[in-house]
Structure formats: C-alpha cells, structure tokens
Specification:
Helix content: over 70%
Strand content: under 5%
Radius of gyration: 23 Å
Order of helices and strands: HHHEEHHHHHHHH
Structural class: mainly alpha
Largest sheet: 2 strands, antiparallel
CATH topology of the largest domain: Four Helix Bundle (Hemerythrin (Met), subunit A)
Shape: elongated
CATH architecture of the largest domain: Up-down Bundle
Number of strands: 2
CATH superfamily of the largest domain: GntR ligand-binding domain-like
Number of domains: 2
Strand order of the largest sheet: 1-2
Length: 256
C-alpha cells in the first residue's frame, strides 16, 4: 500500500480552526470586529504572521472582511437570507406573521429543550439578566413602549438559543432576530387591546419558561415555549375575528 506522505499542518490552520469555532459558537458575531493581530497572537500564543495568514484564509472564504478605516470584521452576510429585503417583504404580508409564529413554534421549542439540558452557569447568568430586563420592561420600569418590549422579548429568546449550545439553532435565531423582534412588536399591538389579562398571562408564561430552563426541566421547557406560542396564536386569531365583526357591523350601520 502506498498512502503517500503525511502533510505537515500549518500553524495558521490551527488558528483558522479556533476562529471558525468562535464564529460557529457565537463568541464572534456577524459584524463584530476581531481583536488586533497582536492581541490574537498573544491570546493564541503564536506569531503575528501566523495570525495574519489565518485571517487571510478566512477572508478568502468570505467569513471575514476588512473595512474602510482599518480592522477585520466577521462578515455581515452571515444569516443574510433573513435580512432586507426579504424581512420587509415578510413583514408586509399578514399571513407571514402566522407563518413565522408556526416556525417559531418548532424552533423555540427545541431551543428551550436543549437550553434546559445544556445551560452552563454563564448561560444561566445571561438568561437571568435577559429575563430581569423583560420583567422590568413589562412592569413599566423602563420606558420605550412596544419597541422596547419587543426588543426585550426577542433578546430573552435569543439568550435561550445561546444556552441551547446548538450552533444551527443559534445562528438561525440570530439571523431572524430583527424579524423576530418586529413579529413580537406586531403581536403585542394586536394582543393588548383584546384583554387586560393578556399582559399578565404573557409574563406568567415567560416566567414558567425561564424557571423550567434554570431548573433543568427539559420537557417542561419545551412545553412552556410551545404553549406560549399557541396562546399568542389563539389571542391574535380572536382579535382578528373581532376586527372582522366590528368592520361588518360598521358597514351595516352605514347602510341603515
């Protein structure tokens, strides 16, 4: 058998692997600036030329890019399928809001399940911080209206995705973040006029979800996430039916 000689691995390839892992796990996010070559060299215990070579390899593959004024950044194109103009197109069609809720049902149920099973102490700390902010926004301690609530809600769900330690789930949620935030804001606008109890119910559902993850109850966490989205769909459907009835009654009144 002649398998041929083994090729010696370059040090820059090891650095590429480290940087790829940081992008994949979310330690380096889309649009984030990399530390300077000197800092990376010190952190990895390698020479600056090796770091520079690794950066050039990742740039050639489209994972990193240089910007005017200096600096190397993780490309903004990560997850670009759910950025403008598709985001605007989805937002303008009401049926797409239902489609997104159905998609979230599958996605966030899985995120909650794995977060409950895999969350580390730093994950729980980040999740707690996101939950505390959500509580403060819902309680009116932070002003900003629906937009602030939408942002806090979306970041809470993003923290759950991070705690899932599933790279595909995390990057899907991250790529959908703006769309998710707008969907939450739209839902809030459609739900709150329906009943004064809705706001309290949403907060109780978020609390149950948070506790299930913190306590490591994976199946309960999945069920809490799915029940929450089922409730949102139900309330929105009822609100839309009410709007239809009111519009019909007004047309009849105008013809009387």
């Amino acid at each position: 058998m002649n398998a041929g000689p083994l090729q010696q691995r370059r040090l820059s390839d090891d650095i590429v692997d480290r940087l790829e892992a940081m992008i994949l796990e979310g330690s380096l996010q889309a649009g984030e600036r990399l530390p300077a070559e000197r800092a990376l060299a010190e952190e990895f215990g390698v020479s600056r030329p090796s770091v520079r070579e690794a950066i050039q390899k990742l740039a050639a593959r489209g994972l990193l890019s240089s910007r005017h004024g200096g600096g190397t950044y993780v490309t903004d194109a990560l997850g670009a399928a759910f950025r403008d103009p598709l985001l605007d197109l989805l937002e303008k069609h009401p049926e797409s809001q239902r489609d997104l809720l159905e998609f979230r049902h599958t996605l966030e149920g899985a995120c909650a399940y794995y977060a409950a099973r895999r969350a580390t102490e730093p994950d729980r700390e980040r999740l707690t911080a996101a939950f505390d902010r959500l509580v403060a926004v819902y309680a009116g301690e932070q002003r900003g209206g629906r937009a602030e609530e939408g942002d806090a809600d979306a970041r809470f769900h993003l923290a759950i995705a991070e705690a899932s330690h599933n790279a595909v789930l995390l990057h899907t949620i991250r790529s959908l973040f703006d769309l998710l935030k707008r969907n939450v804001v739209t839902n809030i606008g459609g739900m709150y006029p329906k009943s004064s109890e809705v706001r309290g119910m949403l907060m109780r559902q978020h609390t149950d979800l948070y506790r299930a993850i913190i306590e490591g109850r994976a199946e309960d966490a999945r069920n809490c996430a799915c029940d929450h989205l089922d409730y949102v769909q139900q309330v929105l459907a009822e609100a839309q039916l009410e709007e239809t009835r009111v519009a019909r009654a007004r047309r009849r009144q105008a013809l009387a």
